[in-house]
Amino acid sequence: MSARDGSPRRAPAPEARCTVTVCRGCCCGVAGKIPRLDHEAQLADLRTALADLATVRRSECLDACEQANVIVVQPSAEGRRAGGRPAWLGLVNDRDATADIADWIAAGGPGLAEPPAVLDLYAFRPPRRVRAELESR
Ligand code: FES
Fold first, then answer.
1. Is any ligand 1 atom within 6 A of the Cβ of residue 72?
2. Which of 15, 44, 79, 130 is surrounded by the fewest CB atoms within 10 Å?
3. Ligand 1, residues 28, 30, 69: which to mutate, most atoms within 8 A of Cβ?
4. How does 50-60 read in b/e, with b if 16+ C-beta sit within 10 Å?
């Protein structure tokens, strides 16, 4: 994987990584709500693909249940300095989308690499209160 300038990317130090928050609350990750996806496999795929590149964490309900499954990609420290902001992705109920998220982060993530265009289909903007709550975790 390479950065925007084509140079190879090294695995970032843990404190400098992107953080990927995977909601697994009352609606996200629940087979009764979203039956056509292996939710545990989705989480495992992200953890495997991003093992050395990002912190992948599971969260309780992020208060955007109408968008289940919700995944939030928070920029690395470098990405934030470059203007990257958390990307809220909803209705991530396709394994290909999970792979696209992993590819984006491997390329640098928010602020450092353009997301694959297909991720525009998943992007949404939650209320400010909800965004602030995640930032405080
Ligand atoms: S369970 Fe994911 S937003 Fe509510």
1. no
2. 15
3. 28
4. beebbebeebe
